[in-house]
Amino acid sequence: MQSDCVNDGSKDNSHKILEDYSSIDKRIKVFEQPNSGSGKARNLGLDNAIGEFIAFMDSDDKFPNDNTLKNMYTKAIENNVQVCGGSLSEMMPDGSLKTPRSVHTYFESEGILDYRDFQYDYGYYRFIFSLELLNNYNIRFPDYLRFQDPPFLVQAMVKAQKIYALTEDTYYYRWGHQDVKWNFRQVNDLTKGVRDNLVISSVEKLELLHENCVFRLSTQYKKILLNSLKEGNKELIFILLDTINCIDVELLVTHSKSPELKLKPLEEYLEYINLEQKVVKKIMSINQPHVIFMHTSTSVLTPVPYCRHYSLQHNLELTHTQKKCKM
Questions:
Q1: Residues 42, 170 within the same domain
Q2: Rounded CA separation 255/242 (Å)
Q3: N or C: less crowded end of the chain, CB within 10 Å?
Q4: CA distance 7 to 21
Q5: pLDDT at 83 over 50
Q6: At which of 127, 146, 174 does a domain end?
Q7: How many CB atoms neighbour CB 154 within 10 A?
Q8: 93-111 pLDDT, tens per residue?
Q9: Are 147 and 206 contained in the same domain?
Q10: Are 89 and 176 in contact (CB under 8 A)?
Q11: How far apart are CA 224 and CA 246, in angstroms?
Q12: How would residue 274 be classed by pLDDT, with cut points 50, 70 and 90?
């Protein structure tokens, strides 16, 4: 085993503490970078990893016990899979454990699971990943300050296709000390991350994941996005339009109950942006084909005739061509 510890530009004694541990155990490798965010820090660790499988851990979390990694590795090898993971528990500020038993954080039974039967984008840290898988498809964390984990997890899951699921907890996530103050870069990166997963889920026809991405955009993060718009985040206007454009309405309508109710909250973004014809022309003038969901008198979201169609190539790099949308 090798432990790659990345000091992301901390100004306290973190680097010295890491070096002290490294001097005691040579399996501990220490890497330093200017403060660049967790995505780049994890990529630095990935680029220097030498093991067969790789696990990730944030400095404030922990594994449930000394055998957690061993159990996941053993099951992965025995079942010839490239991704293996288990359930998640949360550590509260008082030290108690909260164990959410939702379908997305808990596996009810052990065994091989097709990602199409899972289709979730959170909780990458409760899995181990084949380093060969990640390197062969150049799967890395995007350079986002927020929401860099979900695109990484989805890309890995799509390429692995199947995982081995354990019912036991494989990660303890610490809650209660986070206090995120959202700046424009973080909000924009969050939106880009949702957009990335909208694209992948559309191309791969992962209808449950696509519906969940729409929920994140229209409901879960709505307050954060609207506040940023009201604070003058002009770049977010175009990122939001591009992200809304990536919603596969046909996929949503085919597989979702009451899709119009899931899309309707998006109107509030457009009402605030006050999307006039001159704005549309400005977007088109920079050769960026979009689907614009217009606010109509009947309060229905309706796409304009053209949309951007994405396809996946190699490691899910995105390309686009223009094609007519079905009305």
A1: yes
A2: 23
A3: C
A4: 13
A5: yes
A6: 174
A7: 27
A8: 888 888 877 777 889 999 9
A9: no
A10: no
A11: 20
A12: low
Please tell me whether residues 80 and 115 are part of one structural domain: yes
Supply the range of the domain harboring residue 305.
184-324
The answer to whether 72 touches 130, Cβ cutoff 8 Å, is no
Domain shared by 165 and 203, yes or no: no
Amino acid at 3: S
Q: Using DSSP, how many helices (H) and how many strands (E) does the chain show?
A: 13, 12
Are residues 157 and 198 located together in one domain of the fold?
no
Instruction: Kindly state whether residue 157 falls inside one of the protein's structural domains.
Output: yes
Check whether 78 has a pLDDT greater than 60. yes
Tell me if residue 136 falls in helix, strand or coil: helix
Contact 327, 305 (CB under 8 A): yes
In this structure, are 200 and 92 located in the same domain? no
Position 291 in a domain = yes
Assess whether pLDDT exceeds 70 at residue 250: yes
pLDDT bin (cut points 50, 70, 90) of residue 113 is very high
The residue assigned the tokens 């030290």 is 95
| Residue 168 and residue 40 share a domain | yes
Which SS3 state, helix, strand or coil, does residue 232 take?
coil
The answer to whether 134 and 156 have CB atoms below 8 angstroms apart is: yes
Same-domain status, 118 and 228: no
- Secondary structure E strands in 57-123: 83-91, 97-98, 111-114
Which residue is listed with tokens 């490294």?
Answer: 22
Read off the pTM. Answer: 0.83
12-60, pLDDT tens digit by residue? 999 999 999 999 999 999 999 999 999 999 999 999 999 999 999 988 8
